[in-house]
Write a structure and sequence with these properties.
Layout lengths: L3 E5 L2 H12 L6 E7 L2 E2 L5 E3 L1 E7 L12 H14 L1 H7 L3 H22 L5 H22 L3 E8 L2 E8 L3 H4 L4 H17 L7 E5 L2 H23 L2 E3 L5 H11 L5 E6 L6 E6 L4
Parallel strand pairs: 1-9, 7-8
Antiparallel strand pairs: 1-5, 2-5, 3-4, 6-7, 9-11, 10-11
């Protein structure tokens, strides 16, 4: 069984990542600690824990994992033993079919509404609303910056350009993301129709981050392809995960998968299953 490497704020967190990658219980994992987590100043993490792990050989653990067939056979037995429930479920299939059809009819108007295409006049109006809000923000904060915008594929791209705008970006773009959501909400409150998608960038931060993240993802993917050892990347947002997924498609012999739950969802880069 191949070894899998992972990092985390603690050894327990790294082991949990490995569990999700391998899909086994903790007692079925053989773990080697490569580096202990180290604390920096003011309680901040200086370095994360790093481990490598693999599934123990069958001879080393007595409890074999339950297979899908075993689980399904047990479920079948329970269903058969409860005859009254089975007969009720199968009593009138038309009723359940009717409910399904009714629910699908109710959902159709919502789907049609979300697919309504905005006119160019509506998009231009929202573009102006977004620009006005950001210009007001720049003025209130007393910073030297210019607001620009463009429309691409019916999306509104707003940007603030200038010097010393790092505080508007924040650590890992957290402040920028909050500002983007705030701008979207302001525009949404002023229009009656479904608003267009608004994206905000500050001093080309998103473009620079995307290029750096893409380059890093390719380097990790090349290492995985060479060593045949899966790597779990740090937790990141949906946009950054998409950048990683797209970048890795350029590397032969590897594939990606997302694991974990928000806000600590992350990407796993692993050897391709057909290798």
């Amino acid at each position: 069984m191949e070894w899998v490497e992972a990092t985390g704020k603690s050894i327990e967190e790294a082991v949990q990542k490995v569990q999700e990658i391998l899909g086994v219980r903790p007692e079925e994992i053989e773990v080697q600690v490569l580096e202990e987590p180290k604390a920096g100043l003011f309680g901040r993490m200086k370095t994360e824990a790093q481990i490598k792990a693999r599934v123990r050989p069958r001879s080393q653990h007595n409890r074999p994992r339950k297979t899908v067939s075993e689980k399904s056979s047990r479920t079948t037995k329970k269903t058969k033993s409860n005859g009254t429930n089975v007969s009720k479920r199968n009593e009138d299939p038309k009723k359940s079919l009717g409910k399904t059809e009714d629910s699908s009819k109710q959902k159709k108007p919502l789907k049609q509404k979300s697919e309504e295409k905005l006119s160019m006049e509506q998009i231009n109006n929202e573009q102006q609303l977004g620009e006005d809000f950001l210009r007001g923000l720049v003025s209130v904060l007393g910073i030297q910056g210019t607001v620009n915008s463009e429309i691409a594929d019916d999306d509104i791209q707003l940007s603030i350009d200038g010097e010393n705008l790092g505080f508007l970006v924040g650590r890992k773009g957290v402040t920028l993301s909050a500002l983007q959501e705030l701008t979207r909400q302001v525009v949404k409150n002023k229009v009656s129709e479904r608003p267009a998608r608004i994206n905000i960038d500050i001093a080309n931060y998103r473009m620079k981050r995307e290029e750096a993240l893409r380059k890093f993802a390719i380097e990790v993917a090349q290492e995985v392809a060479k060593n045949k050892v899966s790597k779990a990347m740090e937790p990141m947002g949906a946009v950054d995960r998409r950048i990683v997924h797209n970048a890795v498609t350029e590397i032969e012999g590897v594939e990606t998968a997302s694991a974990g739950t928000d806000p600590r969802r992350y990407v796993i880069i692993k050897p391709a299953s057909n290798n």
